[in-house]
Amino acid sequence: MPAVRVVVAEDQALIREGLVRILSDLGFSVVGQAGDAVGLLQLAFELRPDVVIVDVQMPPDHTDDGLRAAERIRRELPGVGVLVLSQYLDEHYALDLIGEDARGVGYLLKDRIADVASLGEAVRRVADDGSALDPDVVGRMVGRKRRDSRLEELTPRERDVLGLMAEGKSNLGIAEALGVTPAAVEKHVTGIFSKLQLGHEHTEHRRVMAVLAQLRAS
């Protein structure tokens, strides 16, 4: 099976080189590196990698150039997965990036880079057309106080399950994370869909989008 092809875009050279080393050690093929958003776009359109990994703030403007480049790649290169790394715990960045389709997209805090296994899992999930959302970002989305929100009807355990669903985890993955049985997770998922009036979705990315749609609307 060929290695997942990755382009890394990060303006801080030490972080960029560190990412390249980590990814290479994990078995990924780093086919390009960029230090700014313009370079990222050039490489993405030229190389068509499986995944691009990009920082939110990059030259030339040092604002949200990386995020805007990632959104363009999502629009114009649907076969390329996008994993954004950010130092900002901002759920709005994540929601803007995801748009109306959670497939092939990820948003992780830079602190997560130190967890090599989690980083590798996120890259593979995005490459496989899945989603990988940082649990801290998801926790903020789920935990925000909302007036007249159906989220307020959820039990603490249902909130835990909802957060893991929004990260893109399957029922089995949620069960392993919480130390419960898959049957217990299924029961909680059914309760969540019922309380949020979401209906039963069969594929993982649709479950994620159902959850995020509720988070946006609340």
TrEMBL record:
GO terms for molecular function: DNA binding. Keywords: DNA-binding, Phosphoprotein, Transcription, Transcription regulation. Residues 5-125 form the Response regulatory domain. The modification 4-aspartylphosphate is found at D55. This is Two-component system response regulator. Residues 147-218 form the HTH luxR-type domain. InterPro entries: CheY-like_superfamily, NreC/VraR/RcsB-like_REC, Sig_transdc_resp-reg_C-effctor, Sig_transdc_resp-reg_receiver, Tscrpt_reg_LuxR_C, WalR-like. SUPFAM superfamilies: C-terminal effector domain of the bipartite response regulators (SSF46894), CheY-like (SSF52172). Pfam families: GerE, Response_reg. GO terms for biological process: phosphorelay signal transduction system; regulation of DNA-templated transcription.
